[in-house]
Amino acid sequence: MTATAEPRTNSQNGEGASVVSSPEETRPARAVEQSVGTVDAADVRFLLERGRSLCTPVLREAVGRLAPPMDRVSAYHFGWTDAEGRPTEGDGGKAVRPALALLSAQAAGAPAEIGIPGGVAVELVHNFSLLHDDLMDGDEQRRHRATVWTVFGPAQAILVGDAMFALANEVLLEAADKGGATGVDAGRAVQRITLATRKLIDGQAQDLSFEHRDRVSVEECLEMEGNKTGALLAASASVGAVLAGIDDAGADALERYGYHLGLAFQAVDDLLGIWGATEVTGKPNFGDLRQRKKSLPVSAALAEGGPASVRLAELLADPEGRGHEDEEQLAVRAALIEEAGGRAWTAEEARRQHRTALAALDEVPMPAKIREQFAALAEFVVVRER
Amino acid sequence: MTATAEPRTNSQNGEGASVVSSPEETRPARAVEQSVGTVDAADVRFLLERGRSLCTPVLREAVGRLAPPMDRVSAYHFGWTDAEGRPTEGDGGKAVRPALALLSAQAAGAPAEIGIPGGVAVELVHNFSLLHDDLMDGDEQRRHRATVWTVFGPAQAILVGDAMFALANEVLLEAADKGGATGVDAGRAVQRITLATRKLIDGQAQDLSFEHRDRVSVEECLEMEGNKTGALLAASASVGAVLAGIDDAGADALERYGYHLGLAFQAVDDLLGIWGATEVTGKPNFGDLRQRKKSLPVSAALAEGGPASVRLAELLADPEGRGHEDEEQLAVRAALIEEAGGRAWTAEEARRQHRTALAALDEVPMPAKIREQFAALAEFVVVRER
Hints:
The structure is a homodimer. Chain A is mainly α. The first copy, chain A, has a single domain (41-382), classed as Farnesyl Diphosphate Synthase, CATH 1.10.600.10. The first copy, chain A, is built from 16 helices and 2 strands. Chain A has helices at 41-63, 70-77, 96-107, 116-137, 148-152, 154-178, 183-210, 218-243, 248-275, 278-281, 287-290, 296-304, 307-317, 327-339, 342-362, 368-382, and strands spanning 141-142, 145-146. Chain A has a two-stranded antiparallel ribbon with strand order 1-2. In chain A, α1 crosses α16 (368-382). The longest helix of chain A is centred in the middle third of the chain and has 28 residues, at 183-210. Chains A, B: InterPro entries: Isoprenoid_synthase_dom_sf, Polyprenyl_synt, Polyprenyl_synt_CS. Chains A, B: Residues 1-34 are annotated as: Disordered.
C-alpha cells in the first residue's frame, strides 16, 4: 500500500521542518545542500494553480464523455461533486503532475499550453490507478472522503478506472488534432505514458506480492517504488516536452528528473509512514508498521545485520499476534529500525535521489527561470512533513 | 451479461441448422440470402488457424513481459497453463479477431503479417474486458474453466486486465519500430483501438445499468450491444488495414463491416440465450431469461404492445418470486416473447445486420479472394447454433 505519490495531506508551501532532517539538527533542514537557493513559495503556488486551472476544464470535458453513471462517479472521485452529484468545493488534489507537464513544455521552448493534453493524461492515469488500487487494497478513505468502491460498488471502481485509462490515450491523441502537437509527437507521448502505466501496474503487482513476505531487499523495495511512484512522475515531467517535439535524449533526461523525484518523494513518504506525527499527517502513529508495509526504512534496517536488525527480523517473522500489535510493540519496532540505521539511511536516500533528479535536469538546455521552477517543484514535493 | 462476442462453444465450420431460421423452415437456413455462395469451411479454418499461429507467439512474448505473478495469471487465463502453471492443450478461444486483423491487412494490399500487432492488440483488449467483466458480473466460469478472479483473487483479475490493456497499446506502437508500419499509421491504429475500448467500457456500463431496470428499449439494447460487441469487432476488421496505411474512408468502411457483424453475432447470441438447446450450448434452458437479461428478443417483444407483450411486461415487473422462476415460468415467458414477435424480429435483425456488414465491405476495393474470405468469416460468426 504505497502512497502512489499522493501526498498525505495538503502542504501549501513546502517549508517547515523536514522529516529528512536527522533528529540532532536544530534548524529546518533542506533536503539537499546544493539546492537552488530557497524554495520560492510563490513560484510553486503559481505552478500548481496554473496546472489546475488549465487542465481541469479539459479533464472535466473528457470525463463528461463517459456513459452514465461513469461521468457522475468520476466527478465524485475528483472531488467535484458529493455522492449525490451536488457540486462541492473540492479541487481533486494538488495537481503536481499537471504542473510538471506544463512546465516540461516550456523546457522544450514551447508555451505551457502545449502540455495541457499531457497534464490531463497523466492525471487520468494517476486516478485510474487510485481507483483500482483502493479497491485492491481495500482502502476505504482517500483525500478524507469515502473511496469510490465503498460508495458506488466495486464494479464502478473497476469500470471508471478502465475508462480513465482509455481517456488518457484519447486525450493525448487528440493533441495532434487540436492541441498543437504533431501526430508523431502525440504518438511518442502515448508510447511513453503507456510504458509508465505498465510500470505502475508492475509496481502495484510487486507491492501486493510483498504482503505475503516477511522481508524485501532494499533493491526490490526501490524497484517497486520506482515503478509505482517514479514512472508516472517521470512521464509527467517529460510529456509536455514530448508534445512540443523535444528529442528523445531530452525527454529521457526529463524522465530521469521525474523518476528520481518520485523516489525521493517515496523515501520521505516512507519516513512519514513511521515517524510522521499523527496530528500533522492525520494518520495513526506507526501506520506503515501497523500495516506491515515493506518500506525502505524496514528493508534498510533488515539489511544492516547488527543486533537490532536481527531482533527486528525475529519480531517481523513471528506469526504470534501478527496484525494485532499494540502501540508499544510498534514503538519497539520503530526504535529497532532507527537503531539499525533504517531511518538515517532512508533520509540520506531521499537526499541522494533529490540530488540525482536535479543533476538530470542539468542535462537539458532550458531557460534559467524554467530550471528554477523545476527545482522549486522538486523541493516542494520532497521537503515536507506530511 | 452480454457475451462480449465470445462464441458460446466451438463450432468448427459454421454449418448446421441455424438458430436464425424460423421453426417452420425445414432445411438448415442461411442467415442471409445474398451470401457469397456456401461458406468455404476450409477457408474459415485456414483464416482462424493463421490468426492463431501468427499472433499467439507475439501474444505470449508480450504477456511474458509482465511482472510475476501477472505473467502466470495471464497464461492461465489464455488457457496455456493450468492454475499450477503446467502447460495445457488449451488454445485460448477461436481467435476470430486476429483472423480479421490479418485479413484486413490484405484488404489494404499488404501481406497478412503487417496485421499481426493489430491482431495481438485486439486480442489483448478483448481479454482485458473478459477479465474485468467476469469479476464485475460475478461469473465463475469462462471457456469451461474457472475464471481468474475465482482462482487468483479479484486483485489479480483487475491488475492483469489493466496490464493487458496497456500491453495492447505497447504492442501496437511497437509496430512502427519492428512491425513494418509507419509511426503515423501505428498512432492511427492506437486511436481507433482506444475509441473502440472506450465504447466497450460504455457498453459494459450500460449493460450493468440495465440490470436495475424492468425494460430497455430496442434502441438502447442495440446501442449497448453495438458498444459491447460491435466496436471491438469493428476495430479488429480495420486495424490491419490501418497499419498497412489504408485511408480513413477505407478504414471506416471496414469498421462498419465489423460493427454490423458484431450486431449480427449478438442478435444470434440473444436468440441462443433463450432458445439454444442446452445439449448444444452447454448452458441452461432459457439462460438469459433466468438472468433477467435485457436482450433483443425481450426488448422487441415488449415494444410490440399486443396482449402477449403486455402480459410479458406484467410478469417482468412483478417483484414476487423474482430470481426464483422455475423452468415452467421461464417457458411461459419464452412463449410470450415468441408470440409478441420478439423471436422473429431478432432473427430478421440478425439477417439485416449481416447484410449491412457485407454491403460495407463492398465499399472497399480489394481482391475478390479477400472479399470472399471476409464473407466466409462473417457467415461463420453469424450462422451457428451454439
